[in-house]
Design a protein that fits this description.
single chain, about 230 residues, 7-stranded mixed beta sheet, about 20% helix, about 30% strand, hydrolase, Metal-dependent hydrolase
Length: about 230
């Protein structure tokens, strides 16, 4: 599958001709200043939780593209209140079928609140089963043994994990998470955007390689095959 990285935890996966965008945070990211938000394609947008660094640009992109936006029930209601009518609720444990495949919502160990401090519902991750392959985006989670349950339902081709530490998993935890979900291809996200999550890239790459795992750290705006 073709994966395009837009910085922080925002990336797009092309599946069966459909562009699936995750956690759009671009306009507030100085590292992504060369990305033209209005040129981003999206048929679906998946939101892992309500923190501003995951939802900042969802309204703009959703209204530009008409994409269907998925999030927990609190995010779903927030989307409707903000004029995004093509919204779809999904909570941990639930799954829905779409024209590209199935989205299953899973638990993430992380807080969630909107920019005004109001409750953003439970934080989530997503497991996508598609005609082109299967993958897991964990969202901003801590390492949890719940991850091993994913393999009971889905054989994954790759996973997307936060690796910047401090507010999410770091390098060591992401390596263990990779083993729990039985993948050897990992896209690293949620690093470098802010001073307290700046990461040593070579250290991360070496640590994953030592465990026979392939860590991908594409440049912002770069498209890779996974």
């Amino acid at each position: 599958m073709k994966v395009t990285y837009y910085g922080h935890s925002c990336f797009s996966v092309l599946v069966n001709g459909k562009h699936i965008l995750f956690d759009p945070f671009i306009s507030g990211n100085e590292l992504a200043k060369n990305i033209n938000i209005d040129e981003i394609k999206a048929d679906y947008i998946l939101i892992s939780h309500a923190h501003y660094d995951h939802i900042l640009d969802v309204e703009r992109i959703a209204k530009n593209t008409g994409a269907k936006v998925l999030g927990n029930f609190e995010i779903y209601n927030w989307l409707l209140k903000n004029g995004i009518e093509n919204a779809h609720p999904i909570n941990p444990g639930g799954k829905f079928d779409f024209d590209f495949g199935t989205v299953k919502c899973v638990i993430a160990q992380h807080p969630s609140s909107f920019m005004d401090g109001s409750y953003g519902g439970i934080a989530c991750g997503f497991v996508l089963t598609t005609v082109d392959g299967n993958f897991y985006y964990s969202g901003d989670t801590a390492l949890t043994l719940d991850m091993q349950l994913i393999t009971k339902f889905t054989k994954l081709d790759f996973a997307i994990f936060p690796i910047g530490d401090g507010l999410t998993m770091g390098i060591e935890e992401a390596i263990e998470a990779s083993k729990l979900v039985v993948v050897d291809k990992i896209l690293g996200v949620h690093y470098d955007t802010f001073g307290f999550i700046v990461m040593d890239h070579q250290k991360a790459l070496s640590a994953f390689t030592k465990e026979n795992l392939n860590l991908f750290l594409p440049k912002i705006g770069e498209t890779i095959e996974l």
